Amino acid sequence: QLQLQESGPGLVKPSETLSLTCTVSGGSISSTSYYWGWIRQPPGKGLEWIGSMYYSGTTYYIPSLESRVTISVDTSKNQFSLKVRSVTAADTAVYFCARHDYGFNWFDPWGQGTLVTVSS
Amino acid sequence: SSELTQDPAVSVALGQTVRVTCQGDSLRRYYVSWYQQKPGQAPVLVMYGKNDRPSGIPDRFFGSTSGNTASLTITGAQAEDEADYYCNSRDSSGDHVAFGGGTKLTVL
User: Fold this and answer.
1) Bridge partners (DSSP) listed for residue B90
2) HSE, side-chain direction, 13 A CA sphere, residue A51
3) Across-strand partners of A53?
4) Which of A28, B31, B33, B65 sits a CA distance of 20 to 30 A from B88?
5) How distant is the alpha carbon of residue A31 from its chain centre?
6) What is the structure's pLDDT at B42?
7) Quick one: pLDDT band at residue A31, thresholds 50, 70, 90?
8) CA closest to A108 among chain B residues
9) Cα A12 vs. chain centroid, distance in angstroms?
10) Residue of B72, B84, B97 for testing the chain A interface, max A β-carbons within 10 Å
11) A64 interfacial to chain B (CB closer than 8 Å)
């Protein structure tokens, strides 16, 4: 059974870089059928897709965040990572990772999510 | 604002049928998926493709699309169906992912 787990600091200072890792178990991140995505949810608000990447390195990002975001993969560790630079309080959210079928537009399964708070 | 539009809230009496809708031009060209999210939990995929349910999702959940509107219909709503529901597809350009703003479903 495929499982995903986010990890990383729960508190980041304004203007610094948010860094999260998603560890995939029960399956290979090098699967040729799927992308791997990050989605966030500010407290009390809806879901926002951040970006997705294929194991080979192809990435897609939401245009509004593209200048500050990098998604990368480490196939040797079966992990993929998210970096958001120059964070502000608006980046405070629960961050989820998920397997992504880009062609058919679905995410499954999802990690449990991790709350990242941007505050000094 | 989201390129996929959902009603903020919908209610249904226990055991009755309810439809949650999602509107957007991209739905004419791309598949939609639906997620159920309960408080403090990660979203769960409940519908994808033309009308496909992941394993474990009850058959009272049904998906359909007509023109620019996708619908998630729950026939015989149960108390455990009370949750936020999000649709997901592409933005109007087709290049990027979009989520609807979410619908809070209350089962009365």
Assistant:
1) B97
2) 24
3) A36, A59
4) A28
5) 17
6) 98
7) confident
8) B45
9) 16
10) B97
11) no
Contact A49 B96 (CB under 8 A): yes
In single-letter form, the type of residue at position A66 comes to E
CA distance A19 to A67: 15
> A111, B42 in Cβ contact below 8 A?
yes
Place of tokens 């964070």: A87
Cα–Cα dist B62/A107, whole Å: 18
- Name the residue facing B90 among A52, A105, A110 (closest C-beta): A105
Question: Which residue matches tokens 């120059």?
Answer: A86
Q: Write down the residue that tokens 């304004």 correspond to.
A: A14
* Phi, psi for A86 (deg, rounded to 5): 50, 55
- Residues B64, B85 contacting (CB under 8 angstroms): no
User: Identity (one letter) of the amino acid at B22?
Assistant: C
Q: Nearest-CA neighbor of B45 among A7, A39, A54? A: A39
pLDDT of residue B60: 96
